[in-house]
Amino acid sequence: MSAGLSTRDVGIRELMDDPEADERMLARTYGRFGFVNAVVSRPGLLYRRDIRPRAGGAPLRILDIGAGGGDLCRFLAGRLRHDGLAAEITALDTDERAIRWASAHDRGAGVRYRRALSTELVDEGEAFDVVLSNHVLHHLDDAELQTVLEDSRRLLAPGGLAAHHDIARGRAAYALFATATWPLSGNLLADSFIREDGLLSIRRSHTVAELRAMVPHGWRVRGGVPSRLEVRWEDDRARP
């Protein structure tokens, strides 16, 4: 691995995290997340493997921590509705700009958008069948990572699942993202932070081995394609 990717570069910050970030570019970034994540994050696989099998009967309670523009929540809401399944989906983010944009672009998905920390939901006694995040872990320092994992576990209803997904740092991930987004930088991704922030986020991301050394007992870490990682906890209490 090259020197620039051999360790996490925690000293850099993504452009969209800047409180003074250009509002127009930020809005365009939120608007393009659905396209990028459809390719990179494979939400259809998440739905088939972890969401659809748990749905049926009472509405499935889903929490997305660090939901950003809410594209994953709206995707899941649409697939569940298409399959005739009920769900209550909460998109959580600490950035008021993200919540404001996502709320204005719900398009009838019926997602609940809320600005709050996961710890606040724990204190309120909330419970969910599925707790998710996508491309959030690399934003966190070590203490924040432990807090999010602990909160996720405490927010689970009996038999629930917590699954946090992110990109795995490495030369292949960096080269693939750089190559794939270059032709789009002058059109689809123009006037957004996606390409530059995507490359920065890879530099901030963990490897599977790094996360395995960090997560508390009971959490599983596994890699996936393309250059993906997942931190997973499955509650073993019987569902009511």
Oligomer description: single chain
Sequence stretches where pLDDT stays below 50 over 5 or more residues: none
Strand portion: 15-25%
How would you describe the shape? globular
- Report on the biggest sheet: 7 strands, mixed
Give the rounded overall mean pLDDT. Answer: 95
User: Which sequence of strands runs across the widest sheet?
Assistant: 3-2-1-4-5-7-6
Rg, alpha carbons: 17 Å
Number of helices: 9
Structure report:
The structure is a single chain. With 240 residues, the chain is of the alpha/beta class. The chain contains 9 helices and 7 strands; from the N terminus they run H-H-E-H-E-H-E-H-E-H-E-H-H-H-E-E. Strand 6 and strand 7 form a beta hairpin.
Describe, in short, the structure shown.
The protein has helices at residues 23-40, 43-51, 71-82, 96-104, 118-123, 142-155, 171-181, 194-204, 208-212, and strands at residues 60-65, 87-93, 112-115, 128-134, 156-167, 220-224, 228-234. The chain has 240 residues and is α/β, with parallel strands linked by helices.
